[in-house]
Amino acid sequence: MDITLFIDLMQDYGYVAMFLFNWVMLLGIPLPGETAAILSGVVTETGSFYAPLAFLCAYAGLLSSNLFTYFIGRVLAVRILERFEQSRLQNNVLRFRQAFDRYGGYAISFSFFLPGFRMVMPYVTGANRYPLPRYILYAGSASFVWSLIYFQLGRAFPAIYEEVLSELQRYLVIASITVLLGGIGVYMVRQRCLSR
């Protein structure tokens, strides 16, 4: 993907472009989240941007998009869960909600570091009516750390950030698949134990 257009837009529109790119990155459109965050760091090294302000704009974009999708989940996705509760999946939905009440904070925090999970988690959290102050606590702190890591990678490696990002994404995709398969495995073992 040729990202010179995005760098040019950041150079032309500055901090507003950083905010907007990091806001839409949760959707993966027009570029993946990691790329938007790392580009904010790159342009502070190659342009005339004040790094702390650039970071705050990138972080604010990420956090506000997470809150937006949390509210979408709270308003729209909750109806889907309510339909599942009235179907044969009622027990599964109930167990999921109990587990989410117990481990939701960890799941929210951990999801930021796994591609795919980061995009889905705000919807799931909102649909489960997870308390907003707790969501802000976990999502805010995890997104701060996540943004800082990618922002600093962009600043540390402005000339080779694409290679660094490519290598990192490969490992993160493997980690995401491992977590997903591990979760499915645990679920299957528990189902087998419960059926005995």
UniProtKB/TrEMBL annotation:
The chain crosses the membrane at residues 12-29, 49-73, 103-123, 135-151, 171-189. Keywords: Membrane, Transmembrane, Transmembrane helix. Residues 31-155 form the VTT domain. GO terms for cellular component: plasma membrane. It holds the Pfam family VTT_dom. The keyword Coiled coil does not apply. Belongs to the DedA family. This is Alkaline phosphatase.
